[in-house]
Amino acid sequence: MPFPTEAIESFITAGYPILYLISWEEERIENRLKFIGKKFYQGSLNFYTWSCTDGMRGEDGEVKGTQDVIQALDKVIDNNESGFYIFKDLHFFLNDPKLIRRLKDVYQKLRSSSLNSPPLGSDPRSQSPNTLFILSPSLILPYELEKEVAVIDVGLPDEDEVRMFFDSVLNSTSDKIRDSFTPELKEKSVRAILGLGASEMELALRRTFIGREKIDENELLDALLEEKAQLIRKSGTLEFVRTRVGLDGIGGLENLKEWLEIRALAFSPKAKEFGLDIPKGVLIMGISGCGKSLCAKAVATAWGLPLLRLELNQVYGGTFGSPEEVFRRAIKTVEAASPCVLWIDEIEAGITRSGEKASDSPASRIFGYFLTWMQEKEHPVFIAATANQIDLLPPEILRKGRFDEIFFVSLPSQKDRKEIFRIHLLSREKNPDSFDLDSLAKNTEGLSGAEIEQAVVSALFESFSKRKDLDNKELIIAASSIVPLSTTMREEISKLERWASNRAIKASK
Ligand SMILES: Nc1ncnc2c1ncn2[C@@H]1O[C@H](COP(=O)(O)OP(=O)(O)OP(=O)(O)O)[C@@H](O)[C@H]1O
Ligand SMILES: [Mg+2]
To answer: Is the fold of 5-153 the same as that of 414-487?
Structure first.
């Protein structure tokens, strides 16, 4: 989302004296507001910021006696010059009746002063706006103030803004570094850091440039992505997953793979010209260990998009803020990093929580927000969700229009098992052709992909300890010592299969 400069200007021009900006990026907002003020009102404007520790500060330093928020608002009322007043911690106090009243007074005062300014449509420079900005990471607005306050949601920097940051950081580096940036590398670097806040971005760039004499493309992009991974992890709910598994690392599941291959091109500008919709997402459900999470990861690799994993459970943890705020922030990050794949593993665990059935519980509010977002999202974010216990899923989420398709992943067929053996032998430096894959597949009926992998791993241990090469016999022994989930959970699995038979598409052919 671009910085909402136009929205801010139009509210100011229309005479809105109090604007509530939702963002946790204080420094960026301050800088942008200063920029807007200077651009439109050329030097005639005073800037003040207020925080609960520093009180009010203007360009000449501290304003005496403004530590208290009410006193600071009194100063705004008494001040007869035009100005931008940026209040940073005001939202913490918004349950105080005195403060609400004082804000109404501010509204009256600033509004009447702005009504005395030149009429609408005249040169904005001839106006002298007096505007109070409330800056807060989340929207906490008592209904008494709803009429007085205009709310603007500020997203994370978009590509254009990132490019600007990039140039300004680059300008402060050595000539050698600057010269080694081709336009292509610059674009790739910009894409790599999308999804971060402005100051995080600057930090990531500076850290990657430090100590470098010149730029090695792969190394630089890798370092930037690593910085981004670390910064995103700090948010607590999102993880930037870097994976190499592609669709060829999945045995079987041809229907699902074909579906994904066809849609791989949907993110190109050509597809847009052609009139293709960007796919919304898939829900992959089914038996444990059969490759659901694996598919979610493989989508991102196959489509060449970044993969962000959302931990819905952490959203409710409370460690990182109120659930609504944390969730909203995660969504903003995901949107800023788009086009990307958002992976939500075991979605049922995150949206259905025992004992929280009440309609206004955080879980149900977040679920509602999530559904609306899914349906209306404009950013190219593809959701790859997995679910094990479909009976816990609320029916709304299964409705058409939410996910493009629901796939059911069942136990691998004999042909699939052969392929899965091949994949896991190959990934462990063994030549699959030196094994009798047909007999292995035949003798492992009922085993899931994860269990086949486990058989390969333990057979490798056995043969290594016996100081001999891995062979068919060792693999069959390892496989037969596994008690498959399909035996221990026979009833659950057949229930799942019955449920899926007319609701979902089979992932395998
Ligand atoms: N079809 C498959 N092809 C190749 N490997 C597979 C396949 N299915 C499972 N595996 C192996 O098993 C591991 C575990 O599978 P995965 O995590 O995708 O299962 P899942 O369906 O998500 O299970 P759970 O419901 O328990 O989360 C994978 O990382 C992969 O190594
Ligand atoms: Mg899984």
So the answer is: no
